[in-house]
Amino acid sequence: MNTLRRILLLTAALVLSHSAHALDRTNETFKVFQFPPNMIPTIDGKTNDWDIVPESYVIGSDQLIDDMHNRTNDPKHLNVRVRVGWVKGLNRLYFLYEADKDIWDFSKPDLHNDIFEIVVDGDLSGGPFEQEFETNRAIIGSRWDTYLQLQNVHAQNYHIFTPAENKDWCMFWGPQQWAKDLPYANHACTYNFRPGQSGHLVLEFWITPFDYLGMEGPKRAVESELKENKTIGLAWAVIDYIDPNSRGNNGFWNLSRHHTFFGNADFLCPFKLMPLEPQFLKPIDCKWTLQIVDMDRRLVAFKDESIGKITSWSWNFGDGETSTEQNPIHTYKAEGAKTVVLSVEGPEGKSSFSRVWDVTLK
To answer: Do residues 233 and 126 touch, judged by C-beta distance below 8 A?
Structure first.
């Protein structure tokens, strides 16, 4: 085995080893529902857009524990249902949070408020992202130096107030406050109760996960790329208050089995970005993408992304040339804008797809 191969195998082993230990509840994978592009939820605090999500995607109160007190939740006091979704081509995570509670506490203007706290790590980078958990804090500098350099940079924490009355919708636990506003997040909440009463709450929102979210601002931020079958780190807790005069909360109900997930991404849970459910797929659907590899040489690579069982491909490159390869690379002889067509065929029928002037060469 040559040296380069040894290095590559060792690197892969280290990455896999870290990934295997950088999540909690690795014996199960939670699912993130893929919305079809023509059925993206409207953020209006209503549940009807989520009726298409199968029950198998719902994560309820039975999954929550309070590990600090070693107890499970009583649904008669607090009953929650959470669904998570995504849309191919958008780096957004959509959430529908529904909760029934016997006593809602949200009368104060500070952090004392019933809260839905979520943490997301879009690239499974793992490790601490909150200054209290950083072991190198003495090297970085003061507590606030660590906060500014570390907090929410590679994983993000949102304290979402349920409900947020006369206050911002969430406390984004880091210096990058712009990340909780449009165009990076949106929210809506509906409820019909007052502080101290029981009732049903619907919270609908979406957020943008980031692989890098420094204090410098959005120009240097790097969004997490969301794509089919990718696994991300995600977890949440319901922080339960019942008495506006008490200093503490009545429960910290975690999806993770470690309440310290709020500052250490090693304790998040694996969530898989699922493909479209079968009922939203055509039996055969032609799709393809391209990349201009070398503009000077007019070299273009084409990639088939068709859905269904495909047995034949027929490319028309728009210059009189054709190909029956699945993923051809084509060199154009002349400049100009081209209309390229791919036609595919399989047991379920035929389909074609064209792109008009996506290939424009000098």
So the answer is: yes
pLDDT in tens, 207-235: 999 999 999 999 999 999 999 999 999 99
Which pLDDT value is given to residue 11? 37
Q: Is it true that the peptide bond before 163 is cis, omega within 30 degrees of 0?
A: yes
The terminus-to-terminus CA distance of the chain in angstroms comes to 45
Name the pairing type of β-strands 269-273 and 30-34.
Answer: parallel
223 has which bridge partners? 210
- Token output for 48: 């009807």
Q: What is the DSSP string of 308-319?
A: S---EEEEE-SS
Q: Per residue in 228-243, is it b (16+ CB within 10 Å) or e — as a string?
A: eebebbbbbbbbbbbe
Give the helix, strand, coil percentages of the chain, each rounded to 5: 15, 40, 45
> b/e map of 143-174 (b: 16 or more CB within 10 Å)?
eeebbbbbbbbbbbbbbbbbbbeeeebbbbbb
Tokens linked to 148: 């500014």
Is residue 107 within 8 A of residue 95, CB to CB? The reply is no
**Distance (Å, rounded) from C-alpha 138 to C-alpha 151?**
15
In order, the DSSP letters of 234-281 are EEEEEEE---TT-SS-SEEEESSS-GGGGTBGGG-EEEEEPPPPGGGS
What pLDDT, in 10s, does the model give residues 159-216?
999 999 999 999 999 999 999 999 999 999 999 999 999 999 999 999 999 999 999 9
Instruction: Please give the model's pTM, rounded to 2 decimal places.
Output: 0.85
Which domains does the chain possess?
23-273 (2.60.40.1190), 282-361 (2.60.40.10)
Place of tokens 């943490």: 119
**Residue tagged 């909760």 (tokens):** 99
